[in-house]
Automatic annotation (TrEMBL):
Pfam families: BD-FAE. Residues 135-214 form the BD-FAE-like domain. This is Peptidase. Keywords: Aminopeptidase, Hydrolase, Protease. It comes from the Bacteria. Gene3D superfamilies: alpha/beta hydrolase. One of its GO terms (molecular function) is aminopeptidase activity. Signal peptide: none annotated.
Length: 264
């Protein structure tokens, strides 16, 4: 388990340098974009992208939203995407692309707090992996929390889901493997749920479902609901959410998590 290649990217911002790293997973060369701070790494943010292929690809600007002077931010491309070897498995073997990277970073920076952020598709990508990793918390933002709900609400994606996973009834076992709540326990790391009430790509009922499920097992969580925003907040509504995410990570690290709340 090691980084096999590091490529310097033309990314030089105030506090970070950018690299495309390649690491080995199941004999596959999987790539990720990494922003390395000039200062000592005290926090790591692992951004789990949404989409597939070029849709939702990992971008520098997105990673920088979660960076500060002492934060390493990294976004795995997943196998079969953007130059990574293999075939995208959509919550299958590609989950190893996440777990391997997190364990690798934890080995390199054992004293750094690690937070995972899953956006859209990345929501379930994180829920299916974070609970068994050395992480401090998971943030699910506009994220899928239940694959069956995704199949029901996104009629336009049913063909893709049938090709990659199968039909929920005919391939019930494959869908059952992708049910994250069977793995999450009351002692799992805490979760921040961020969602827009006007989200038409991943309906807010995905967030409500997850909040209720976490409540039922008494896992610590917090919710941030933006009543007037969609899948991606408008620019004026983006800054408050990013501030709340930063506050959440700080609260978790200092063990000062308060009750949940909403942003209007």
């Amino acid at each position: 388990m090691a980084i096999t290649k590091t490529k310097k990217m033309p990314i030089d911002v105030r506090n970070h340098s950018g690299y495309e790293i390649t690491y080995l997973v199941d004999d596959l060369q999987v790539k990720a974009l990494l922003l390395l701070p000039y200062q000592r790494v005290k926090r790591i943010v692992v951004y789990l992208r949404g989409g597939k292929g070029q849709v939702g690809k990992v971008r520098t600007g997105r990673l920088l939203q979660f960076a500060n002077a002492e934060t390493l931010v990294v976004g795995p491309y997943y196998r079969g995407n953007n130059g990574s070897e293999g075939k995208d498995d959509f919550y299958g073997e590609d989950l190893k692309d996440v777990t391997t990277l997190v364990k690798l970073l934890h080995t390199q920076y054992p004293d750094a707090a690690i937070h995972m952020i899953g956006f859209s598709r990345g929501g379930l990508q994180g829920l299916l992996t974070y609970y068994d990793l050395p992480v401090s918390s998971f943030i699910i933002w506009g994220g899928v929390s239940d694959i069956k709900l995704m199949y029901e609400e996104r009629v336009d994606l049913r063909g893709m889901l049938r090709r990659m996973i199968g039909h929920p009834k005919k391939q019930a076992a494959a869908y059952q493997l992708r049910d994250a709540m069977q793995y999450i326990t009351p002692t799992s790391p805490p979760i921040l749920i961020v969602h827009g009430a006007q989200d038409h790509q991943v309906g807010i009922h995905q967030a409500y479902y997850l909040a209720q499920a976490l409540n039922d097992i008494s896992l610590t969580y917090r919710t941030v609901y933006q009543q007037q925003e969609g899948h991606v907040p408008r620019p004026f509504a983006l800054s408050p959410v990013l501030n709340q995410i930063q506050q959440w990570m700080s609260d978790v690290e200092h063990q000062t998590i308060q009750d949940d709340y909403a942003i209007e």
